[in-house]
């Protein structure tokens, strides 16, 4: 028996209905904020991803050579393709551009709970505007989208100017090593690494900064910064918005990617792999042949959101099952068309079994049975049975449709 590839999944109808429900909520909120959907190819030229991340990322990707000898890759993320598309197609469009996407990505890594080789991201990119209000909009949008999914989460917001002010002047490789400890919140490991180098004061400053939760205290550690007014404006907007968040100047992830504000959102019931969103401000367009362009965005790990939600069913929709005799078949087709046109999920029995056998089968999955024989066909009526209460009525077709719609959960 052939099996699905490792790190991929099959989704049966119940699970797909849940996923589409949450996906629809995300799309609708993005639409209300003025963001419009875009789509990029599932595979791109390999250079698109190595130009920013280096050759080392190839080991984490699905890479192949096409028949023309070109090196291609299944996309491991969406920001680079979106910025490539912006450079190719969007530079002359009125700014700012508010774009969102929902798409699958591919990474060749060890599968584990909430981490797969094929996974889905919902993301937002706000391109062509550089302001504290733009940064705040992206954070507020992320909070509203995740609130709509029904998960419990916490928002952590930082600014990379704070960390850079302390690490400035250090060799890049040294900075990367220090950021690795900070990213893992491994302060004991950080001290063990810096103490033999005579950098105890640096370790103390970094530890204080990472644990600080008050903006004024942060500036006491970093000193006055050119970005101070911008940072204070951002957090003032967020404070007036009323959303709960944690100031986290210790965010070190993406220091070579993001340029200013960074934020991460964590679900409360996912264990160690609990980050469901990452985002911030960045400038990447120039890497792909465009002009230096301010951008701000985030990506949501859709699969982790679904794991965090657990086994929650989507909103229940009523089902009507149609049982019919051979004489009632043509009328059954007409009735099913009317019910479906009204938005009611309607399943026509296809088996040719007796009416009693059809009704037994319909009762396993439907809320209403619509019984259509020669008499109903001749009189142009519908015998409708509520399978939950057992009440059976004979109604004209429009009245039968209204009967089901009235009982639909709101």
Structure description:
With 410 residues, this protein is α+β, with helices and mostly antiparallel strands. It has 15 helices and 16 strands. The chain has helices spanning 13-32, 47-53, 79-90, 132-149, 160-167, 172-183, 187-194, 200-211, 215-222, 228-241, 302-309, 329-341, 355-362, 374-379, 397-406; strands spanning 36-37, 43-45, 63-65, 71-74, 97-106, 118-127, 153-159, 246-247, 258-267, 275-282, 295-301, 319-324, 345-348, 368-372, 381-386, 392-396. An eight-stranded mixed beta sheet has the order 1-5-6-11-10-9-7-8, sandwiched between helices. Helix 12 (329-341) links the parallel strand 12 and strand 13 (345-348). The chain is elongated, with a radius of gyration of 28 Å. It starts with 12 loop residues before the first helix and ends with a helix. The mean pLDDT is 92.
């Amino acid at each position: 028996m052939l099996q699905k590839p490792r790190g991929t999944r099959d989704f049966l109808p119940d699970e797909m209905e849940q996923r589409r429900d949450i996906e629809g909520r995300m799309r609708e909120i993005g639409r209300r904020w003025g963001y419009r959907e875009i789509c990029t190819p599932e595979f791109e030229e390999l250079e698109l991803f190595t130009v920013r991340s280096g050759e080392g990322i190839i080991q984490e990707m699905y890479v192949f050579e096409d028949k023309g000898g070109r090196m291609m890759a299944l996309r491991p993320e969406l920001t680079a393709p979106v910025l490539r598309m912006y450079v190719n197609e969007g530079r002359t469009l009125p700014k700012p551009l508010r774009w969102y996407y929902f798409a699958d990505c591919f990474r060749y890594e060890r599968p584990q709970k909430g981490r797969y080789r094929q996974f889905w991201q919902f993301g937002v990119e706000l391109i062509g505007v550089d302001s504290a209000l733009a940064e705040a909009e992206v954070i507020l949008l992320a909070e509203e989208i995740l609130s709509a999914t029904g998960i419990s989460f916490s928002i952590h917001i930082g600014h990379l100017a704070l960390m850079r002010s302390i690490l400035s002047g250090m060799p890049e490789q040294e900075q990367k090593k220090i950021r690795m400890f900070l990213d893992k919140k491994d302060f004991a490991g950080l001290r063990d690494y810096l103490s033999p180098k005579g950098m105890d004061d640096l370790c103390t400053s970094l530890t204080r900064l990472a644990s600080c939760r008050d903006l004024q205290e942060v500036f006491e550690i970093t000193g006055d910064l050119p970005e101070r007014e911008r940072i204070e404006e951002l957090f003032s907007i967020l404070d007036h918005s009323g959303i709960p968040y944690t100031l986290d100047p210790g965010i070190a992830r993406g220091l070579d990617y993001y340029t200013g504000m960074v934020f991460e959102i964590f679900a409360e019931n996912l264990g160690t792999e609990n980050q469901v969103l990452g985002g911030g401000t960045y400038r990447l367009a120039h890497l792909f042949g465009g002009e230096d362009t301010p951008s701000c965005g985030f990506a949501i790990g859709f699969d982790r959101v679904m794991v965090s939600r657990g086994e929650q069913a989507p909103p229940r929709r009523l089902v009507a099952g149609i049982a019919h005799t051979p004489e009632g078949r043509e009328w059954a087709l007409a009735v099913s068309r009317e019910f479906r046109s009204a938005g009611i999920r309607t399943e026509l029995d296809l088996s040719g079994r007796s009416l009693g056998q059809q009704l037994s089968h319909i009762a396993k999955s439907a809320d209403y049975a619509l019984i259509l024989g020669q008499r109903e066909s001749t009189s142009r009526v519908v015998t409708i049975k509520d399978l939950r209460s057992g009440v059976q009525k004979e109604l004209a077709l429009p009245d039968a449709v209204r009967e089901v719609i009235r009982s639909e959960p709101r």
